[in-house]
């Protein structure tokens, strides 16, 4: 195969060196050396096949480990944490309430509500303006 390509290129260079005559005018013919179709090497070489097999196996093993080991372990850990939280949470909440009640009782501060604020002293005027006249209504207690 390679030998045939070499022979074709030799023939092209010999043909390009001989002048071409048309109607008595001699001119050299330019022949592109790249016009011969080049043969490309095979895509799936042994190295590429090995690399592809390695990639497929790494992805497959990673997916298998994730699906069969990591995810079930996370589910089991979160389930155990939820079980502990269900048992311990009421005790923690009750302890917090008892602590806050005891702290409020021991602090010595009396928490009473503020008296209702007194009504403002003085006259309150409601002014309504409309259609050219002003009406003033006093609010007398």
What would you note in describing this structure?
- The structure is a single chain.
- With 141 residues, the protein is α+β, with helices and mostly antiparallel strands.
- It is 55% helix and 16% strand.
- It has helices spanning 2-17, 46-106, and strands spanning 19-22, 25-28, 124-130, 133-139.
- The strands form two sheets. It has a two-stranded antiparallel sheet with strand order 1-2. It has a two-stranded antiparallel ribbon with strand order 3-4.
- The longest helix is centred in the middle third of the chain and has 61 residues, at 46-106.
- The termini are far apart.
Number of helices: 2
* Unreliable stretches covering 5 or more consecutive residues: none
What composes the largest sheet?
2 strands, antiparallel
Mean pLDDT: 79
Based on Cα principal axes, name the global outline: elongated
Query: What proportion of the residues form beta strands (DSSP E)?
Result: 15-25%
Number of strands: 4
Strand order of the largest sheet: 1-2
Radius of gyration from the CA trace? Answer: 49 Å
How many domains comprise the coordinates? 2
What is the topology?
Elements: H1 2-17, E1 19-22, E2 25-28, H2 46-106, E3 124-130, E4 133-139
Antiparallel strand pairs: 1-2, 3-4
Which structural traits does this protein have?
141 residues; alpha+beta; 2 domains; two-stranded antiparallel sheet; 55% helix
């Amino acid at each position: 195969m390679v030998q045939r390509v070499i022979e074709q290129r030799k023939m092209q260079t010999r043909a390009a060196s001989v002048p071409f005559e048309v109607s008595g005018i001699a001119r050299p013919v330019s022949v592109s050396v790249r016009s011969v179709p080049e043969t490309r090497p095979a895509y799936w070489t042994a190295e590429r096949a090995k690399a592809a097999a390695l990639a497929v196996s790494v992805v497959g093993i990673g997916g298998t480990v994730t699906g069969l080991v990591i995810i079930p372990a996370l589910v089991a850990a979160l389930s155990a944490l939820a079980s502990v939280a269900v048992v311990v949470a009421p005790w923690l909440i009750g302890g917090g309430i008892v602590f806050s009640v005891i702290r409020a009782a021991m602090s010595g501060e009396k928490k009473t509500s503020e008296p209702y604020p007194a009504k403002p002293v003085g006259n309150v005027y409601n002014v309504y303006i409309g259609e050219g006249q002003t009406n003033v209504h006093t609010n007398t207690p």
